[in-house]
UniProtKB/TrEMBL annotation:
HTH rpiR-type domain location: 3-79
Organism of provenance: Erwinia typographi
Matching InterPro entries: Homeodomain-like_sf (IPR009057), HTH_RpiR (IPR000281), RpiR-like (IPR047640), RpiR-like_SIS (IPR035472), SIS_dom (IPR001347), SIS_dom_sf (IPR046348), WH-like_DNA-bd_sf (IPR036388)
Name of the protein in question: Transcriptional regulator
Keywords: DNA-binding, Transcription, Transcription regulation
Keyword Ribonucleoprotein: no
Length: 285
């Protein structure tokens, strides 16, 4: 996998001399501003000399500031630094909007770079062939399980989101051949879900996990769709951290729909009208 320029700058910034580190931090966090700046303006903004900017450019393989900017444009489309930009109490709504969108785009870009399509294909194959799918998750990942339940049911699949420890244990212990246990876990280290996977496999069910690739849950699974987790989420969980799991669900749904011969595989049949009573736009009331 090719590492983007911005990612390289982020990765190597801590090893740079102090003055160059200021340049690196500004370039990595405000690349669009850098594209509009002269070298003199960047030097002034970072409180460094022009030779410092040139040394920074050469450190990353560019013989001029303009060459750096040209490559920076290429890095921004479509790549982006896979960093979480923390929202702080002093941020106004404009920063909240900008940072939320950027964090989400960064998360999606990371998924596009890292995800292995063959894992989606294999997971979709087992899900489509399953006689029943139990969908397991805990904590904030429960919303992913409910989302998957809704979408799979729209495809006509027999499935159920299983939330709560006792309920999960009961269903996993009664799992049998022909069934699939689909497990969502960002870290892949949650003991309850690893035990669920072990119980389901003992009963003969296939286990598909959407989790960190190098994790206990991944090692307990027949198929792992590896999604890199955000770092250090034991105490605080970024709001964008489950976005990629939703996207993986959509990929599985679409792959199953294509295999089933759907004319519009990336769309789901609307809910029955009696379940969603709509207001007639021509009704003046």
């Amino acid at each position: 996998m090719t590492v983007s320029l911005l990612q390289r700058i982020l990765d190597e910034s801590k090893e740079l001399p102090r003055a160059e580190r200021r340049v690196a931090n500004f370039v990595a966090t405000s690349p669009s501003k850098v594209l509009q700046m002269s070298m003199a303006r960047l030097s002034e903004t970072c409180s460094v000399s022009d030779p410092t900017v040139i040394r920074f450019c050469r450190r990353f393989g560019f013989d001029s500031y303009q060459a750096l900017k040209l490559h920076l444009v290429q890095s921004l489309v479509p790549a982006a630094p896979f960093a979480y930009e923390q929202i702080v109490p002093d941020d106004g709504v404009d920063n909240i909007v900008r940072k939320t969108c950027r964090n989400s785009l960064n998360a999606i870009q990371r998924l596009a770079e890292d995800l292995t399509p063959e894992q989606i294909a294999e997971g979709a194959h087992y899900l489509q062939a399953a006689s029943w799918v139990g969908i397991y998750a805990m904590g904030i990942s429960e919303v992913n399980a409910l989302d998957a339940e809704h979408k799979f049911q729209r495809l006509g699949m027999r499935c159920q989101a299983l939330l709560g420890t006792r309920r999960q244990e009961m269903h996993a212990e009664s799992a049998k051949s022909g069934e699939v246990a689909l497990i969502y876990s960002q870290s892949g280290h949650t003991r309850q879900l690893v035990e669920v996977a072990a119980a389901a496999r003992r009963g003969g069910a296939k286990v598909i996990s959407i989790a960190a690739g190098d994790s206990p849950l991944a090692r307990m699974s027949d198929v792992v769709i590896a999604v890199k987790p955000y770092e250090h989420t034991e105490l605080m969980t970024p709001l964008a951290s489950r976005l990629n799991h939703h996207l993986v669900t959509n990929m599985l749904v679409t792959a199953i729909a294509i295999a089933s011969g759907s004319q519009f595989p990336d769309q789901l049949t609307a809910l029955d009208s009696w379940r969603t009573d709509k207001i007639d736009p021509k009704d003046p009331r």
